[in-house]
Amino acid sequence: MGKAIAEKKHMEDALDAMKQICGQKPLTTLSRKSIANFKLREGMAIGCKVTLRGFRMYEFLDRLVSIALPRVRDFRGLDPNAFDRHGNYNLGLTEQLVFPELNPDKFTTSQE
């Protein structure tokens, strides 16, 4: 969320988008240290995250695999090396509009 440093509206849009996608309120993550080149100060809101468990997790995984991933442009499959030692899988999307829950008229800029 690099754009959120300069303009707070980008962070609000990202939180709203994640809330619509996941079905629960996301947690705002704060920066741990200051980086002068990025105009970042310690404690600034720079991202958001959601922890899904149980039924919501399986429902999201089903929607991701069956609906969202086929809509990704130039999709070449999932990387099997993205698992960590604890069985968690990390996946990055360049555009959040692949989820049908989001209205493309409201979310004009992609979250990077």
Structure description:
The chain has a two-stranded antiparallel ribbon. Helix content is 27%, strand content 8%. With 112 residues, it is α+β, with helices and mostly antiparallel strands. It has helices at residues 8-22, 54-68; strands spanning 27-30, 45-49.
Task: Give the strand order of the largest sheet, numbering strands 1, 2, ... along the chain.
Answer: 1-2
Helicity range of the residues?
25-40%
The biggest sheet amounts to: 2 strands, antiparallel
Q: List the secondary-structure elements in sequence, H or E.
A: HEEH
Any low-confidence stretches, pLDDT <50, length ≥5? none
Radius of gyration (Å): 15 Å
Roughly how many Å apart are the termini? 6 Å
DSSP summary, beta strand count:
2
Instruction: Characterize the overall form.
Output: globular
Task: Provide the residue-averaged pLDDT.
Answer: 81
Total helices: the number is: 2
Q: How much of the sequence is in beta strands?
A: 5-15%
Q: Supply the helix-strand structural class.
A: alpha+beta
Concise summary:
The chain is of the alpha+beta class and 112 residues long.
Distinctive features:
112 residues, 2 strands, globular, alpha+beta, 27% helix, single chain
Task: Please render the helix and strand layout as text.
Layout: H1 8-22, E1 27-30, E2 45-49, H2 54-68
Antiparallel strand pairs: 1-2
